[in-house]
């Protein structure tokens, strides 16, 4: 691995405090040093991906990340290896990895560095990152891609959707959310299924035509926005409901806003159409 152009430059330690734990306590993973980086860590990356975490005993968050990643490494049973760099004892290694703050993680795959993250993440999010690393590594001929494990409720919902049993799929997603309230996939699946339930059997052209004849009919406008979303008319649906938010008051306004937020959840969060609509909604409320 060649050193980056800014090798040797200082990195920001201003966010760190005094040590909060004994740095001599046993820690999971391999300790990266100047001596073993080329002789051990890089060759290991030819066999399986190595996730390198920059940490400091002066950062409680980074120590927790070491512990969490160590736990996950054991759960993945050798699919990847954890390595750690104590930026206080090995600052030259930290600089080689372009460390600016801790925790900071990179993956090394076939001796190539891939930046991952530079902040603390919960375990569930770390699993997503690790799965992406394993997938990328497998594409480069190192290791195997992770086998996707479906939750039982997700599998039940998918089977129900395939057979057109939308109500059964809705119940499965709700059961999943009752067990895991913060599961984003379950939230998205439920929103998509409820949209299918609301639009089942509707004729796009007739609904749009009827909504144009009755612009004050709230329920009809919501229905028109639904069919537009189903048929790919994201901007049309957002624009319809944004105009309705501006034209209504009280309970009706809240109802339209809630429906619009539900439609927002169905669109990729980085979609510029969604970003623009969110800004317009915020300006119309405040």
TrEMBL record:
GO terms for biological process: response to stress. Residues 21-163 form the Thioredoxin domain. It holds the Pfam family TPR_20. This is Unannotated protein. The lineage of its organism: unclassified sequences, metagenomes, ecological metagenomes.
